[in-house]
Amino acid sequence: MSTPVLEARDVSMVFGGLKALKGVTLTLDEGKIVGLIGPNGAGKTTFFNCLTGLYTPTTGQVLLKGNVLPGDPAQVTDAGVARTFQNIRLFPSMTVLENVMVGRHVRMKQGPLASLFHGPAYHRGEKAARERSRELLAFVGLNNLDDELSRNLPYGDQRRLEIARALATDPAVLLLDEPTAGMNPQETEATQQLIFRIRETGVSVVVIEHDIKFIFGLCDSVSVLVQGELLVEGSPDVVRADPRVVEAYLGKPPEEVQHEVDAAAASAEEEQA
Amino acid sequence: MSTSTVSTPATTTPVEKRSALAPLGKPFAAAGGVLGIVAALLPWVTFSLNDGNWPDKSTLQFFDAPFAVTGFRWHVLLLGVLILVAAFAPTPSKGRVVRALGWGLTLVSFVNVAYITVKGGGLGAITALDGATAFGGIVGLVAGVLAILAGYGIGIEPVGEWKFKVSTPVAYLVLLVSFAAVLYAVAAMLTTGGVGTSNPYSGAIFLSFLGFAAGVLGALSGVGFIRWLSALSEQHRVFSVIVLAACALLLPFTEAGNEYWMTVAANIGIYAATAIGLNIVVGLAGLLDLGYVAFMGIGALVAANFSGAATAHFGITLPFPVAAAAAAIVAGIFGAIVGSPTLRVRGDYLAIVTLAFGEIFTRSAQNNIGGITNGSNAIPGIPPLSLFGNEFNKSITLGAVKLPAGVLYYILIVLLVAATMAVFANLKFSRIGRAWIAIREDEDAARAMGIRTGKMKILAFLIGATLAGLAGAVFAHKNGTVSYESFKFLESVTLLAAVILGGMGSIPGAVLGAALLFVLPEKLRDFEDYRLMIFGLALILIMRFRPVGLIPDAHRRAEMIERADENAEEAHVEAKKA
User: Fold this and answer.
1) A181 in contact with B at a CB cutoff of 8 Å?
2) Which of A67, A124, B178, B273 is the 20 to 30 A CA-CA neighbour of B105?
């Protein structure tokens, strides 16, 4: 089998006494969409931050195409991992086009001198960046909004703009942190189609989401994270059928809980006796 | 002209206030305009003041030709006529225009009335004395207030939007005329009231002119002309820059073409260039620097020590271009050193680090650490620059035209300002500029986009400091003396104020900010001990009523205007509900 495009090996993250991640392993094969689900506080975003170099894992490592990723977000992006944020983080008083052009930053070869003197190389580079950015804006469905300030876009458009900005870094892997949060069913559907189209361009995708239906309809494989540990990993059907997943989300069925309480009480009595 | 500007009756004024004034809008405007005209044709002072007659023949006993209006009376007349025109011609955003003109009229009247009563020892000077009456001032004040109220009555609509396009030749003509008008206004602004203390009323004349200019500018901006013009100049950027530079170079040929104003304008230019450099650090990259003037000081010291002055530390004399380059490089290196803590500290903490650096610079310079500053003795006797044997501080003759002394410095500094402007503008619209703005907006998101924020921030400090160093080198030769006293904390604050006042991230803003901050204290000398207080008060007022700065960056302006419009809409919706 070929090397997975992104691989997290036994990643642990400890904040003081809190073990946010306990030996999480995840592999993403080229051209696949992997979903990451789990209850609130399960460590999904922490895991994302480890993948993108915002945090350096306490133990374990993250590899992109077999190479260990550096522990710095800018260099990780340069290497080919792009991300969006759970709470949208665009550059609010830049225009839509400028936001995407910031994404082109790592792929542009414009040094300080070219920036200062605006020679022919500068104009070529800017033109190429502008064209690529417009292409991406059209790709995510934001046409004719180039000069609008990003803060003035409606919510769904801001999400799409964030995806376009991430795609502008020409990533091999795109990490989406709750891309449909706050969207209505139509917008969610559109996002799903968009992610499929992103995969078609050869970009592998990792998605964090709470919308289970969305995840199961979208992903080739789903990983469930609970309290910092990887609980289940497999195809949507496998994960859906796993009782542990249901338990993690909904709790145990009442009779089982009663049973456990009884057992605990019994053992306590025994100890006293 | 677009008529869509009146599509929503949204207003920023409280609804009750508007409903009370609404029916009075036009009558008030009419009364205000007519009274303004009347005020211009009335005498303003009853007797000849101790310091001499009030300007423009407004003193009763010399009031021989009521229709030969000049000076401030001419301004009052113009404002009155404009109020009438604005109120009864189809003007976009009528309320705003009338209000702005009203404020102009009020300010002009207030300044003159206040000065006359203070200098003339009481209200008698503006009303009646021995049966002679001079009600011009009071009528002017009433007219101004009426016009302001009329503005609210008519309703404050969003700024007019001009949608019509013009062909390139017409656009060039409009830009040419507009920039020529700017040149005229600048020359008038500088020279009004005469040089220094030659005219006892120069302060009043200047302030009165400022009020008039503010009123007219406010009206032009309210009617949408300024926005249209700036869009036009953006379209024809190269042409605008050339015309603007030409206008700046023509200043010596106007009324302002004497040694005094060349010196003042050159000083403004030096600080404007420095402020533009600071604007890169503060306005683009969003890094608050409270010790920025130290870089200018470093540049000045380097240039002074290589200038061949008697007390220079180094025995060698370098030609100015080389010395200036050395000054820029040394300042830039210090900029990078000071910038390096930015990797670790953000926001307020960074401001404290830069503040400390500025203080270290002043103290070491004061105590002559390293022996290159001469401490409190300063480095005097720096020779003036010269070109082909023409010393820069002497007057020169070009054919038949004799140019005032200091004109060569002025030209050099105009070129310096133009160069810093070009640096700023080119960087702003580049990969690096976008990275800086991204860091300013959201540093973590910028890092996630692959921007090496540390490198970029140090680069901002480096380039800003280089520009300051260059300005410092010119400063050293222009002033002939370099002392640590010129580079204290207060100067840093003033520069920062110039940047914020003019509008962060905006180039014309930085120039205007520097001009105001260095001209106003000069012109407010009448107030002696109070002038800094008045100056501070003016800053507070500007920041309260125009938080984005006088000429804001296009993006920020759009942001604020949209916010204002949203507020207006909300107010409208709420009013409907109630």
Assistant:
1) no
2) B178
